[in-house]
């Protein structure tokens, strides 16, 4: 018996990286999954492999949110779970970052998450309950050089999560945030970032001295999506190998 048997989930940014790991684990745990991304080629390939329906989904566009939610409800009759996973990272020091680059990070990471919460309310109310999992970051607790926009967006997701948890508890909709640390994904390993970061020094500073596999985050997300976390809402779950224990947080 799977952790998510009978549940219907919508996962954003699901074509690769952590999102792909979420899609695969949710399917293994018995969920019926619809996933979206702007990466059409990767998304269609994953859909063909797994059987999970893929929709092109720009999380900054309200009409594309409506289409993604409608797809899930039309196919499976309801929506129980939303994983707001889509996000981008642009490494730029404040002095060098353009306003357009800053706005784009905020639009995708923060506005995209807010639109997801907003779009899930009606179908989850109709289902009688729901679970929304917002993917933030350890950068939502600490700042890092070159990541002002990313950190700002991930700090803000914490606020959206807590406000939504208070607003939606009356509808039995839970809202929590997950804060990954050093995860082995193409976004985290972007060559532009790796040129600017002292990888050896970073590893020495870590409590658990390795990068995590994406599925290690997915297991926490699946727990929060499931009924086993029925008394968790407005909470923040770090998946960081102890990274924040030495961060003064």
UniProtKB/TrEMBL annotation:
Q: Which domain of life is it from?
A: Bacteria
Record key words, sorted = Lipid metabolism, NAD, Oxidoreductase, Steroid metabolism
Broadest EC class assigned to this enzyme: oxidoreductase
Does the record's keyword annotation contain Ribosomal protein? no
| Molecular function GO terms recorded | glucose 1-dehydrogenase [NAD(P)+] activity
Q: Which InterPro entries does this entry report, sorted A to Z?
A: Sc_DH/Rdtase_CS, SDR_fam
List its EC numbers: 1.1.1.47
Give the family per the record.
Belongs to the short-chain dehydrogenases/reductases (SDR) family.
Q: What is this protein called?
A: Glucose 1-dehydrogenase
Q: What organism is recorded for this protein?
A: Nonomuraea guangzhouensis
């Amino acid at each position: 018996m799977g952790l998510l048997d009978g549940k219907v989930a919508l996962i954003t940014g699901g074509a690769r990286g952590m999102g792909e790991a979420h899609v695969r684990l949710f399917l293994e745990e018995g969920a019926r999954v619809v996933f979206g991304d702007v990466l059409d080629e990767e998304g269609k390939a994953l859909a063909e492999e797994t059987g999970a329906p893929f929709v092109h989904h720009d999380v900054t566009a309200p009409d594309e949110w409506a289409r993604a939610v409608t797809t899930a409800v039309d196919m499976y009759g309801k929506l129980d779970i939303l994983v707001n996973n889509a996000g981008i990272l642009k490494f730029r020091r404040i002095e060098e970052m353009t306003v357009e680059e800053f706005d784009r990070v905020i639009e995708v990471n923060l506005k995209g998450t807010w639109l997801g919460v907003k779009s899930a309310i009606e179908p989850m109310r109709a289902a009688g309950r729901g679970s929304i999992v917002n993917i933030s970051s350890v950068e939502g607790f600490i700042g890092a050089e070159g990541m002002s926009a990313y950190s700002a967006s991930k700090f803000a997701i914490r606020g959206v999560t807590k406000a939504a948890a208070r607003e939606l508890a009356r509808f039995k909709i839970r809202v929590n945030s997950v804060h990954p640390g050093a995860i082995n994904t193409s976004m985290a390993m972007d060559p532009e970032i790796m040129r600017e970061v002292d990888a050896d020094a970073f590893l020495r500073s870590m409590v658990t001295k390795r990068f995590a596999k994406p599925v290690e985050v997915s297991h926490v997300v699946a727990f929060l999506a499931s009924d086993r976390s029925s008394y968790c809402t407005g909470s923040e779950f770090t998946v960081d190998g102890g990274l924040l224990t030495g961060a003064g947080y």
